[in-house]
Amino acid sequence: MKRLLLLLALLLPALAPVARPMAAQPAVAQPAAASLKFATWNLEWLTDRPAGSRDLPADVRPKRPADIARLRAYAARLNADVIAIQEVDGAHMAAQVFPPATYAIHMTHDRVVQRVGIVVRRGIRFTVNPDLTALVPPHSWLRSGADITLDLPGGKLRVLAVHLKTDCHFSSLRGRRPACEVLARQVPALAAWIRARTREGMPFVVLGDFNRWMDVRHGRPDGLWTRLEAAGPLVRATAGYASPCWGGERFIDHILAGGPARAWMEPGTLHVLVFRERGRQWKERLSDHCPVSVRFRLPP
Q: Quick check: 14 pLDDT over 70?
């Protein structure tokens, strides 16, 4: 399977559909209306703090100007309307990848280097909601969720960007691994947010770096996915896919839709923007995550 994913990744163009066909989604009537492209992208330690800073791990090196220029070029090719971003050291760094003339940038208020944000194309009106700080357990350096409401011609759409605890990609949330214990403490806050939007009847999208494989594994559904679905019916753009990013891997970056927005997600529009650069050196210089996107067809 890994060899097949690598071959597919090499054959796909820079803006490529994922390797396996999309899992079947419920049949819904799609209204004739405009669409928006949603994306999520972890930019891996996008910071201008100097190497050796006490705020950075010893093995982290800031991006070079040439690397940021490459990321900016990929952002232009991505050409998404709403982008959840992770591991970005403030709006001034996000603006080096997403030009302020084209995008408005909202970042959480966390005092950490790896902040979460949402980038919105100019011309799309939105309001900022309080950060979802409940995703940050006490005495941790994790990230809040960035929460906005899009004011669209057909109504409002709530958008939450997240970056959950790493190093618990598939292990049980009830186990004793420290990372899984932390992730398990984040789940109720995210589920409560989903439950609240579902009760309101609000269409919503949750996207970002979940640091979790969510497909069925060894015949068992994923514990994180089942807990989120219990909070409200959801569809997941990445369900049943393998990603061609960096030669083939499982998805940990996901795009979820709930409420009326479940019917807006367009089947067959999931794409991964694969970097043309190859090799470990470029993976470290650019990002270990590729941008993941999907389109939503909006009601009139």
A: no
